[in-house]
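Supplementary Note 3. Input sequence used for the single-chain structure prediction.
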Amino acid sequence: MIEKDFKTFAESWATAYEMYGKTASPAVTAGAFSLLSEYSLDQVLEGIGAHLKDPKHGSFLPKPGDVVRHIQAADENEAMAALGVVKKMINPYLTPVFDDPRTAAGVAAMGGWKALGEMTTREWDSLVPRFIEGFYSGEKPAKRMLRGIVQEDMEERIANTKPELVERFGHGTIAVNTTGARRLN
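The predicted structure, written as C-alpha cells, is reproduced below.
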C-alpha cells in the first residue's frame, strides 16, 4: 500500500473494528497500515474481509497477522491453480509457452519442464513448495529449464551442423495458459 491508500484502509479497518463493537484508535490503525504496507490495498482489503468471514479466527478482532495469513492463503491458492494447469498440460516432448512468467519460474524451481514429465506422483507432491516459492520469487528461469525434448534434441544434434533445418522445421510447442484458470478458482 502507498500513502494515498491510507484513507480507504483506515475506513475498512474501522468498519472491521465496529463489527466487534470496538473503535480502532488512530495509533492502532496507523500501526496496522505500516505493518501491512508491503501488500497491495486490494490484497489487504480482501484479507480483512476473509478474516471477518473466517469461522475459526473471525470471532476475534483482526490483527495484521490475521490479514497476512489470509493474503498468503490466497497467494498459495493462486499458485496451486497454476500448478494444476501445468500438471494437466505436461508433455516433456513439447516446449511450453507460458502466459505467465511466474508459472515458468515455478516450473524451473521444480527442476524444469522435462523433469516434470519424468516425476512420480510422490516426487511431484514433494516439490510443490518449490513451485510456490519459485512462482513468487520474481526470478527469470534459465531457458534450458523450459525446453522440451524435441527442441533440446534439435539444438544439440541439428543446430550445430544444419541450423537452417531448425528454422525450417522448428520444434513443437504447447501453450500453458494459467492466468484464466486462476481467475476461475
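The two ends are 25 Å apart (CA to CA). Residues 3-62 form one domain.
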